[in-house]
Structures are given as C-alpha cells and as structure tokens.
Amino acid sequence: MSFIWIFSQVDGLVRYAIDEMLVAPSLKIFCAEGEETAALRVGRRLDKYRLLRRLGEGGFATVFAAHDLIEDRKVALKIPDERYISNSQSLEDMQREVRIMAKLDHPCVLPLKDARFIDGHFVIVFPLGEESLADRLSRRISRAAAIDYVVQMTSAVAYAHENRVLHRDIKPENFILFPEQGIQLTDFGLARIERGAHDVSASGTLGYMAPEQAMGHPSYRSDVFSLGLVIYRALAGEVPEYPFESLPAFNKLRRGLSSDLVALIRKAIDPSPKKRFRDAVAMRNAMEKIRFPLSDRSVSLKSEPSPNTLAVRRVA
Ligand SMILES: Nc1ncnc2c1ncn2[C@@H]1O[C@H](COP(=O)(O)OP(=O)(O)O)[C@@H](O)[C@H]1O
Ligand SMILES: [Mg+2]
Predict the structure, then answer these.
(1) Count of helix runs (H) and strand runs (E) in the chain
(2) Is the pLDDT of residue 34 over 60?
(3) Å from CA of 187 to ligand 2 middle
(4) Domain 131-314: assigned CATH number
C-alpha cells in the first residue's frame, strides 16, 4: 500500500504563481459555473474521447484508457477527482503538474498532449502506454531488458534535474512502458521547480522515499535515492527498507552485474544524502562511464549524440 505524507505547503513564490493561475480564463469559467458534473464511468463520452477502461487510481486522480474518436487512436486521460479540484490548493497542484510537463521534452518523459476542461472535468491527455514498470516487474525480466530500462530512467530524471525540476515521487508506478522497450517518466503531480529558495514541503510515496525527504527535506539527492531504489527493485526483485542498513537479495542484485554498476547503485541509495550523487545528472554521467554494465559484456552502454540520453547496445 502506498500513502502520501504531506507536512506543509508554504512557498511564497509558488503562491504568487497560483494567484496568477486562478485568474486564468478557463479556471474562472470553471469556478464560476460550479456545475454538478456527472460521474465518470467506462463507456462515457467526454467531448471526442470515449472512456474505455480504468488504468489507475492514485490519491487524487483517475487515469482512463480512452478512444479519441476524431483521430481514431487510443490515449490516456488523467482526470483529477472532483472532490480535490473544488479547492484552490488542488487547482494549483493540477495546474503545476500540467505546466511542468508542458515544458519537458525528452524521449524518456511522457509527453503532454493536451489539458483542458471538458464538461466540468479537468482532463489531461497523454499517449497510452502498455503498463507501468510496477506491473512489468511482477513478471520475470531479463538482465538486458532491465538494464535498458535503467539507463532510460536515469536519462529521464537527469533531464528533469537539468531543467531544475524535482520529481519527488519516483517509483515504478510512475514509469510507463511503451512498445520496443520504451519507458517514460510521468506523474509530476508532486514536482516542483527548484528556485534555490528553501522548500519546506515534503510529500511522496513512503516506499521509495529518501529518509531526509520523509523528514521534510526533498532535494535532487532524494530523487537520486528514489531512482536508486527503483533500479535496485528492477535488478534484485526486492526493495531495501528504512533505515536501509541491510540490502535484501544483494546477491541477486549482484549476479551478472559489473562491480562498477553495483557500486553506482549503492552510492545512489546511501542513507546519507551527502554520500550520494548530487543529482541525477552526475549519476547519469557516472553511468555513461560504465562501458559494460553486465559482467559477461553482452551489453554495452553508449552515449547518444544528444548528451541527454544514454542507450543500450546489445553486443552480438
Ligand atoms: N499514459 C499512460 N498509459 C498507460 N497507463 C498509464 C498512463 N498514465 C498512467 N497510467 C497508469 O495509471 C497509474 C496512475 O497514473 P499517474 O499519472 O501516476 O497518477 P496518480 O497521480 O494517480 O498516481 C499509473 O501508475 C499507471 O499504472
Ligand atoms: Mg502515480
């Protein structure tokens, strides 16, 4: 089970941005109408979208697979629950998520297709993936396939950090899989743009959360920690638990991996933030230096022409 810790939410700069958002025309219309919106059920139509099935229900939103009847293709619709969007704090969260995702453009970050009000519902539209990494990890996964995801996930978080975005909720449920070994990071609902100012709020999912984030101090280093745990989970099949002194299934983690990659993972999940990579960019750079992540050298890592991505090559 996952749950959310919310300690406090005070940030003058963010508050200022919200005040601006509250006068955005679409929100004004929405707030003024205060209309009753009908419940969302599979089969229902929302403008050009027909809801096909529920994909997930987090704390604040429901995600549906839907058919875009105009473009004749499948999409994912994330629709925040009405009880949460009836107050300004949640409007702020929703709008922040959309605005952060709109400015990110990377092959390993889920692209935002559209976001608007339809029949009183705020609807965020994304390409439809196959399943989440959490779903995928319930089945056996080869070392080579897991490594392929590991490098893409690291590229995604490094890219977010390069854009000064802290994700704050990195976990297998928030990585979506696509055909041909594609994987994309989503759910920037708790993300914040780092402004250099202190940020006293801390929220995220307990299972993958760094200890200091649980104490109210999220940072790039806490995202590194969560990413390290996701990688550990993908390669060992288990997740170390607080206080992270013992590493379950460590022999399974090590099996077939190069010692450099094992050392990199241990550094990412060090309980002491100072001993970790300072951000995911440093972690990606360290990963780029590992030519062969597997001890049998059957896979090699190569930097793509763009410095933002790493890629896996199968060595014949
Ligand atoms: N684009 C997508 N394609 C397929 N499944 C998705 C997609 N987006 C989300 N999901 C599924 O819905 C779940 C919840 O989505 P998410 O954006 O993480 O919302 P929440 O804020 O509710 O956690 C995900 O864990 C995943 O299982
Ligand atoms: Mg989520």
Answers:
(1) 11, 13
(2) no
(3) 5
(4) 1.10.510.10
